[in-house]
Specification:
- The complex is a heterodimer of chains A (248) and B (116).
- Chain A has a seven-stranded mixed beta sheet, with helices on both faces.
- In chain A, strand 2, helix 2 and strand 3 form a beta-alpha-beta unit.
- Chain A has eight helices and seven strands.
- Chain A has helices at residues 29-38, 56-61, 76-90, 109-117, 139-156, 172-180, 189-197, 222-247; strands at residues 16-22, 44-49, 66-69, 94-97, 122-126, 168-171, 202-206.
- Chain A is globular.
- With 116 residues, chain B is mainly α.
- Chain B has a domain at 3-82.
- Chain B contains four helices and no strands.
- In chain B, helix 3 (51-61) crosses helix 4.
- The longest helix of chain B has 42 residues, at 66-107.
- Classes of the chains: A alpha/beta (248), B mainly alpha (116).
Chain lengths: 248, 116
C-alpha cells in the first residue's frame, strides 16, 4: 500500500512512535497510556482500535493519543500493520510495538531501545530470557513457542526464543518492510523468518512481562489455539518460498 | 445410460438453470458467474445426450457405467469451483482489509492511498 504513504507529511513531532493495537481494551488502554507517560516516554502514541465492540474507541478520544480506528475487526496483525503504515507515512525513525492489555511494561521500552542503539534493526522483548523467565505460560503453549523458535532458526537463520512476543522496537527500514509484509491475523515465526532472510539484525532482549488484569487472551479460544500452529507452519514455509523466488 | 436416468439428469439440470436465472433476476448472482453455471449445465446436457462422447469418457476413466463417469466429472468440476471460490474469497478478504485500513488511516488524517 505504498500509495498510502504521504510524502508531503510534516516531520513527526517526536523521533519515534509507540503503536498499540487494541481490541476491546476499554478497561486497560487508559492505564497503558498513563504508564507510558509515567515512564517518561513522550513519543507519539498511535492507538489502533481494531473495530472494538466495547467503548475502546470512545475511551481513546479522551487520551493523549492519535486514534486510528478500523471500521471493522480485521485481526491483531492488521491492526499492527495499520499502525506501522501510519508511522512510516509520518516518517518516524523508530517504532515501538506494545500490546494494549497492560502485559508490556513501558519501563522496559528503554531496554529495547538500548538494543537498537547497540546496532540491532529490531529488538524483541523476551519472556524467556533473564528475569522475564518467571512469566508463566501453559506448558503446551510453551512447547509450541519452542517449536516455532526452532523453525524460525532453521528457516530464517536467527534463534529467537520468544517468537510470539508483541513487545518490539524497530528502526525505520524494518517498519517499512513490515508495513508491507505482515500477517493479518497473528504474527508468529513467519515474521522472524522473513526478517532473518532479509538480513535484518534481530536482537532478543530480556524484558519483564505482566499478567493481564482485564479481558481474555486470544489463546483462550480453543479453535484459535488449534488453528494458529497449523497456519504458522504453512505461513513460515510460504515466506521462505516467496523470498527464495524474489531472490531468483 | 437408460432413458429414465437421462430424463432425471435433464430435469435436474434444467431446474438448476431456472434457479440460476431466478438468482440473476433477484441480483443475487452476477452475469459472469451465471454464465459459468449455464456453461456447466450445457456441458452436462451434452454429456447426457451425446452417447458416444459419454461412452468414450467412461472408457477413458475406466468406469463401468456412464453415470459413474458423469459423477466423477461433476466431482472434479465441484473441486475446481471450490478452489476457485476459495481464491475469490481470499482476494476479497485482502481487499476488505486494505480498504478498512485505508479508511482508518484517512480518518486519522492521512491522505488517500491506492486501491490495489
Amino acid at each position: 500500500m505504498e500509495g498510502v504513504r504521504d510524502t508531503r507529511a510534516p516531520r513527526p513531532r517526536t523521533p519515534g512512535a509507540i503503536v498499540i493495537p487494541l481490541y476491546n481494551e476499554e478497561r486497560n488502554v487508559a492505564r497503558v497510556v498513563r504508564e507510558i507517560r509515567g515512564a517518561g516516554i513522550d513519543w507519539d502514541i498511535l492507538a489502533v482500535d481494531d473495530g472494538s465492540t466495547d467503548a475502546t474507541r470512545e475511551v481513546l478520544r479522551d487520551l493523549p493519543v492519535t486514534p486510528i480506528s478500523h471500521p471493522i475487526n480485521l485481526g491483531y496483525g492488521a491492526a499492527v500493520q495499520t499502525g506501522l503504515r501510519h508511522a512510516v507515512s509520518r516518517g518516524y525513525e523508530t517504532v515501538v510495538l506494545m500490546d494494549g492489555d497492560g502485559q508490556h511494561d513501558p519501563a522496559q521500552v528503554a531496554v529495547l531501545l538500548s538494543a537498537l542503539d547497540a546496532g540491532a534493526d529490531i529488538a524483541i522483548g523476551s519472556r524467556f530470557l533473564g528475569d522475564g523467565a518467571g512469566y508463566r505460560i501453559p506448558l503446551l503453549r510453551r512447547a509450541g513457542i519452542g517449536f516455532f523458535s526452532a523453525l524460525a532458526a532453521l528457516l530464517g537463520g536467527t534463534r529467537i526464543r520468544d517468537v510470539t512476543s508483541g513487545f518490539q522496537a524497530m528502526r525505520k527500514p524494518v517498519a517499512d518492510f513490515l508495513a508491507e509484509e505482515y500477517p493479518v491475523d497473528f504474527p508468529d515465526a513467519e515474521v522472524i523468518i522473513a526478517l532473518g532472510l532479509k538480513k535484518f539484525r534481530i536482537a532478543e532482549v530480556a524484558t519483564r512481562f505482566r499478567i493481564r488484569e482485564h479481558g481474555t487472551s486470544m489463546y483462550a479460544n480453543p479453535a484459535r489455539a488449534f488453528y494458529y500452529p497449523f497456519k504458522s507452519v504453512l505461513a513460515s514455509f510460504i515466506v521462505l518460498l516467496r523470498l527464495i523466488r524474489e531472490k531468483k | 445410460m437408460s432413458l429414465h436416468a437421462k430424463l432425471i439428469i435433464t430435469a435436474v439440470s434444467l431446474a438448476n438453470g431456472l434457479f440460476v436465472l431466478e438468482m440473476l433476476r433477484k441480483r443475487r448472482l452476477t452475469e459472469s458467474y451465471s454464465l459459468l453455471w449455464f456453461l456447466v449445465i450445457a456441458a452436462i446436457l451434452c454429456a447426457t445426450w451425446m452417447e458416444r462422447f459419454l461412452l468414450s469418457v467412461t472408457k477413458f476413466f475406466g468406469a463401468v457405467v456412464p453415470v459413474s463417469a458423469l459423477t466423477l466429472l461433476s466431482l472434479v468440476f465441484v473441486l475446481i469451483m471450490l478452489i476457485f471460490f476459495s481464491m475469490k474469497i481470499s482476494r476479497l478478504e485482502w481487499r476488505i482489509k486494505e480498504l478498512a485500513q485505508q479508511v482508518a488511516l484517512r480518518d486519522a488524517g492521512e491522505p488517500a492511498g491506492d486501491d490495489r
